[in-house]
Amino acid sequence: MTEKQKQAWKKFQNKISLIRKKQTDILANISKKLDEQHIEKIRGKLKIHENK
Amino acid sequence: MKINKELWGIKTEQKSEAKKREIPVPQESPEILIRQAEAAVANLQRSGDQKFNEQAARAATEGLRVDNQDKDALDALRQDAISAEQKLAAEFSESPPKIAEINDNNVKQTDLDKKDTRFRDPSTDISNVFVSVLENKLNVENIFTEIDKIQQNIDSLQENSIKKIFNHFKIKKLAAERSTKEEQVSALMQDIASAEHLLSELYGQIDEKHQAKSIMQYAKDHFRNDPERMDQINKLENERKKRSVESAMMRNNTFIFHGIRDEKSGPVGSRASNLKQETPQDIRIKIALALEPSLSTSSFKNDGAKQGLWSNTGLLLRSGHIDAAKSWDMHTNIEGVNNRGNLAITTASDIDRVMQEKRVLSGGVVWYNEIVVRNPKYAGLCVGSLELNADLARLAEELKLPVFFHDGKGQVYETSPEPGSKSKLVQGKEVFPSDIANSEYDIPQQERRDLIKEVVRDDIFHIDERIKDAQKL
User: Fold this and answer.
1) CB of B60 within 8 Å of any CB in chain A?
2) Are A1 and B26 within 8 A, CB to CB?
3) Cβ <8 Å between A20 and B23
4) φ and ψ at residue B341, rounded to 5 degrees
5) Is A5's CB within 8 Å of B92's CB?
6) Which segment of B27-31, B104-108, B208-212, B379-383 scores lowest on mean pLDDT?
């Protein structure tokens, strides 16, 4: 394996690590947003209940 | 604007994170590295899809909406990964690949030079891929040691309520540190999974004679003249021993039990089990015995205290490899016969901690833990009553399966059929985890094949669900 290929492999590994981390963060963000929507829904229902 | 800032924050964090991870110098041949790269990208996409689909399913069930911006960002990442893989392939194809230098002194480089790399013996690649698995596994073990130290610090800082209040911020900082380490382990685990997938693919290419040797034995033979590698292999083997069911049972004086409910019990989600709800209990047991799949189990101590179990009937394990352990239900899901997903990051000391914990929570609630075991072997059937139903009695007789009785308080006893009765049992002498770990029940190979033919039928598996999963790939 040439030095250039070694460098290319390292670069690929770094890139994939970054992508994996980003993917984890985005998925965590999706889950967080869904939780927020869920809480908002419950709040909405409580408000309707209070107004009755 | 806020989102951009967040993205920027993530980007800078990721750069420093990547710098922290030491990248081993590759020893594999370029073609193997390209296959590893393909596997890594496929694995990344698969795990991303699976998690996204779970969130999308949740959104659909609860009437919520997944932000399109996030979905687009995920799609863009998929493209980035594919581009990175293509770029790597292009770099590697620029100059003709040379045969990787190997450590086996019996093979001369000149002999290898004569062969076309495409027809090289896969056993050489097995050894090289094994090294990358080995290095990653050792990295994982090192991080596990660090996690253990952090956890010990956390435990000492929160010995009592007053200490806990005073050390609130220190504890928070350490918990964040543990979480970062766990993320590193998670990333390495994904690399290991990709490489192991490739390893099993290569293993399938070698002839039957060589397949009789395990990959570990293969590596030992291959690196017998390399003391550094041999040291690494021995370290890994010791760590494996710590994670074995038999060793964990004996260390902690606990039993490990795979509960199997009957078809009338509450439903089990299609993500948690491959089997349909209506699958009879005796067939479920036969499937566990025949396929030895990755299982969710619970441990219980023989300390006379009330034990929490998912089901009173099931199989007692005598052997296997512990992948993960948690004090409560981990909500793992199936990823094929030999893998479960959504596993908690678990060090060997975590296993001991989980197994030592009392299962009675405040207010007298009894709960069960979850221990995920790969390649399980069984000591026998274990039931909470001295009377078997007709199906289980027939199953035990047919497979010569030892039947144990547990009293719900951690004590386990041998049993024998009551004379003149097929279903009633007579309680025998008490057995201990060490007896179970040293027991030898097994099904002969031919009988196992027959059992597989008998039980593996389309109508009992969630085939539709799995086809849907496959279509998503």
Assistant:
1) no
2) yes
3) no
4) -105, 180
5) yes
6) B104-108
Element (H, E) at B305: none
Return the H-helix or E-strand segment holding B352: helix B348-356
Q: Where are the domains of chain B?
A: 24-241, 245-472
Distance from CA of B18 to the nearest CA of A (A): 6
Considering only CA atoms, which of B296, B299, B288, B251 is closest in space to residue B269? B296
Question: What angle, rounded to 10 degrees, do the helices at B348-356 and B122-157 form?
Answer: 50
Percent of chain B with pLDDT over 90: 14
Confidence band, pLDDT 50/70/90 cuts, at residue B401: very high
Q: What is the distance between the alpha carbons of residues B285 and B235, in angstroms, rounded to a whole number?
A: 36
Using 50, 70 and 90 to split pLDDT, how confident is the model at B380? very high
Q: Mind listing the pLDDT tens digit for each residue in B306-360?
A: 777 778 899 999 999 898 888 877 777 766 666 666 677 778 888 998 888 877 6
Of A22, A37, A41, the CB nearest to B77: A22
Tokens standing for residue B28: 């594999």
Q: Is B51 in contact with A27 (Cβ distance < 8 A)? A: yes
pLDDT higher than threshold 80 for residue B2: no
CA distance A52 to chain B (A): 23
Residues of A with CB under 8 A from a CB of B: 1-2, 4-6, 8-27, 29-31, 33-34, 37-38, 41
Beta strands in B262-346, from DSSP E residues, in sequence order: 295-301, 314-326, 333-334, 340-341
Interface confidence (ipTM) of the complex = 0.90
pTM tops 0.95: no
Q: pLDDT confidence of B206, banded at 50, 70, 90?
A: low
Angle at A46 between CA A42 and CA A50, to 5 degrees: 175
Closest CA to B21 of B270, B191, B174, B234: B191
Q: Are B334 and B274 in contact (CB under 8 A)?
A: yes
Strand partners, B256: B299
Cβ distance of B51 and A15 shorter than 8 Å: no
Average pLDDT per consecutive 10 residues, chain A (52 residues; last block may be shorter): 82 86 88 86 77 67
Where helices occur in A1-52 by DSSP H, the ranges are 3-51
**Residues of chain A contacting residue B30, judged by C-beta atoms under 8 Å apart:** 1, 5
Q: What is the pLDDT of residue B244?
A: 92
For the stretch B430-451, what's the b/e string if a residue is b when 16 or more beta carbons lie within 10 angstroms of its beta carbon? ebebeebbebebebeeeeeeeb
Segment of B188-192, B284-288, B410-414 carrying the highest mean pLDDT: B410-414
Whether the CB of B80 is below 8 Å from some CB of chain A: the reply is yes
Pair B290, B314: CB distance under 8 Å: no
